[in-house]
Amino acid sequence: MFKANENSMFVPTKTISIKPEAQIDYNPSNQNNIRWLIPQHIGFFDPRQTQLKYKLTMSGRGYAKPDSRAGCHSLLRDLRIMDGTGTTELESIQDYNVLTAQWWGYTQNESIAHKRDLFEARSANQNVDNQLLYGTPPVWTGGAAVATTSRTAKTIEVTQPIYSGILGGDRVFPVVATQGLRVQMVLDNLNRSLQNPSTEGIVDASITTDTSFNDFETKTPVLGATGGTANARNEKTAPADTFTVAIKKPSDSANGRGVNNNALPFNNNPYDIGDMLYIAKADRSNETELGVITAFGVDGDNDLNITYNPNRADGIAIGVGGTPTDYVAASRIYIKQNDRVNGLITTNTSPAAVTASVATKISYSIQDIEMLMLQVQPPPQYIQGMMKQVSSDKGLSMDFRTWTLYRFNLSTTNGLTNQLIPAVQTRAYSILSIPLGITEQNNINKDSFKGLTDGCQNYQYVYGGSLIPDRPINLVRYTQTPERTDALHIVELEKSLVNAGYGVRNLLRVPNRFLLGRAFSKYGQVMNLAPQDLSLRVEYEGASQEKLYEHFVQSLRRVNISSKGVMVM
Description:
mainly beta; Jelly Rolls; 3 domains; 28 strands
């Protein structure tokens, strides 16, 4: 491939825009497959300048946003690149977002992090008053101020690189030789790629099955069986009837959870207009719908006061199975994240705006997406020589770095585990192994991309009969409280990242960005993994959950273009 140098003649360049085959708004539900055709007539492009540019708008209740470990890259699950005929796969990176989330944090300093905030929707800031993706919420936190509307989502412009050997490499790529390129990008589901900034006061699906117990406590009773008036019994008499319930602050709650309107970073209120509010007794029994939130304010003690419209027929008091029920102070109160993700159809709420708000689902929209490429025009003699190679039997060979994913479901919780990694790369650089929690996958309330320490004692790779390194890497310090780091593990991790081409600039908070790694060679050399088996041994003690291990192997891949066609070696 052509590579300009200081002795080369001037090389003309031009930035061009490539639109996807379907110029529509993309989302993770029913328009999640983005296809591109990079035409042959472009000739040559510089991958270092390739970028995606689009507008991103979040929607739904709460203020879920792309996982800050990878910013907007968390939205992209798979990347596949084929030749222009669509018959030969040149590059395929599965779980692109998981891979990016692992090395992103290690490669950034303050300047790079700020740039990613501006261009790649990293949005690590949790302060609701200063958000990249959402406007300032309505004021409810004092005096007569009452909030009756949700915060507004912003439409931001994203400009992101593509972390690919072909579309993000360091050498000019001759798309003329491959008869163009076909690129497919598949968006991940929103439960995995998005993250809810706060989990306080929120359960997944049911309080009886959610082990996180993130509920709040009521400050005031909610009565259904007693009380002399309909209002006192929480009995709905007209469609638009509303009631109120106050929430304890953390200092007044037995579980230490609650809403404090003076708390940072976001006034500690995780709820939104349109959320369905649920209530249960102190022992988490008798779960029932309380109603749809219509307003936020404060009571006389400046505690959060929630106004709601019951989803019940007129003349019916709150209760379970048609039986009026009393919920005393210190009952459990919460919303369900599944309601935000799936939306709810209500029949007894009013007005229509309330019905519409509770039916809204969390999602996002990608609009006006385009791929920006830097077209390059090499010297004519270079083009002639290259096309002569392409038309010969020997052909033109091009090398690029790429990643291959191998998954392993680790059902064994404790003890010495062994994972076979069926890697057959003949020119391998490094391996990165990420232990992902099974329960954290596809859960917007969890950090789906975070590697779990969870009782890791030590690890060691095995190639053939050889142990690499020759002694186990100790990980016990990562299981201590608070978590600490181990020097040898950091050394091994840094070598694996550097050998994969990533400049390590940040080794802070390693336990929060936990992964295992091994460099197969030194000084940018490669290693042949094909002759013998590769495996990973990890010893666990006191672990609490099953894990999905994702092993990413980086290698040098060769594409040969000749009179016989396009071949990948």
